[in-house]
Amino acid sequence: MYDQAQLIQELASVTRPVGEARGLPSHFYTSPAAFDFERERIFRDGWAAIGFGADVPEPGDARPVEFLGMPLLLLRDRTGTLRVFENVCRHRGMILVQAPGNFGGVIRCPYHSWCYSQDGRLRATPHVGGPGINTHPSIDPAQTGLIPVRMGVFLDTIFVNISGVAEPFEEFIAPLASRWTDFADRPLFAGRDSTFTLDVACNWKLAVENYCESYHLPWVHPGLNSYSKLEDHYNIEQPGHFSGQGTRVYNPRLSPTEAFPDFADLPEYWDSAAEYVALYPNILLGVHRDHVFAIRLDPKAPGHTLENVALYYTSRAAAESDEFADLRASNARLWKDVFVEDIFVVEGMQKGRGAPGFDGGRFSAVMDSPTHMFHSWAASRLG
């Protein structure tokens, strides 16, 4: 466990103004102890992304999720309401749902067949009082349902607060929902064949840091930079919540003759603009006039992260029909190529954290301020 006074002293340089600051110390990217510390301070005590509504599209759908060693269950009940529970039976702690599926009636534990309704209530306890006796005074169904997890949804991303101590979800999401009010309450349609996962040998924070800034575009993304140049970008900064970058010249070249339908009644600004923000801690979002994407970071180990990518469109036809199949494939391929281009950078920075003389690095006061903002937020949560 970290000594609090020593930790505060160590992180003091991280929270200085961007032109004077140093980055987070290397052990926060390599140490199992630091990884465990972050799990408590950042992921359990705050709001963290664990999945997408599109993972459970139909009433009765349930999907198990392991998040930082915690077994959770995403479920869409009969009314279409999203719920999150701990994925364990209240009897002996057996994992309830082993694989994604649809549970039209109840969820049955495979161990002793205790059954739960889709709202988490305990409905059946076979032979709990002896052979053929299915009730017992020691088991109160009203007190022995599935354990609910505090949750919220924004742009189809499912967030949870494990510890229960975070601010209300509405307060957490308000700054970004206000900035993106043009997108926040619109229906989104998950693209068919438009999800993929990248397995990356880096700490989760490096994926956030790289996503925050456009400084690297000319060298890492020459294709993207050919039509959305470095000078076309601007920084986005909301201290304590999110940071990132936007472009004034969103103009993808997917087809000379076809295009996705735009969201209806968008302000003129979005005709040519797009924005990309990292909502701390672990969701990277992009909004455009014709589609939205989300990258959910799943930290697996100090140097191992899964990037789960989902693309969404403005209508069911754009998301699912054969008419737009080629365009969806082109769009998914474009973004996958861009995200893959980042892998050697974040993995290279991870390897660089093994250099004994590296002191966290410096920031460009102009180009790196969104990344520094994330470092400063992480330092404040940890220290």
From TrEMBL:
Parts of the chain that traverse the membrane: none
Chain segments annotated as coiled-coil in the UniProt record: none
Gene3D superfamilies: Naphthalene 1,2-dioxygenase Alpha Subunit, Chain A, domain 1, Rieske [2Fe-2S] iron-sulphur domain
Family annotation (InterPro entries): Rieske_2Fe-2S, Rieske_2Fe-2S_sf, Ring_hydroxy_dOase_asu_C_dom, Rng_hydr_dOase-A
The protein's required cofactors: Fe cation
Pfam family, one: Rieske
GO molecular function: 2 iron, 2 sulfur cluster binding; iron ion binding; oxidoreductase activity
Residue intervals of the Rieske domain: 47-160
UniProt KW keywords: 2Fe-2S, Iron, Iron-sulfur, Metal-binding, Oxidoreductase
Protein name: Rieske 2Fe-2S domain-containing protein
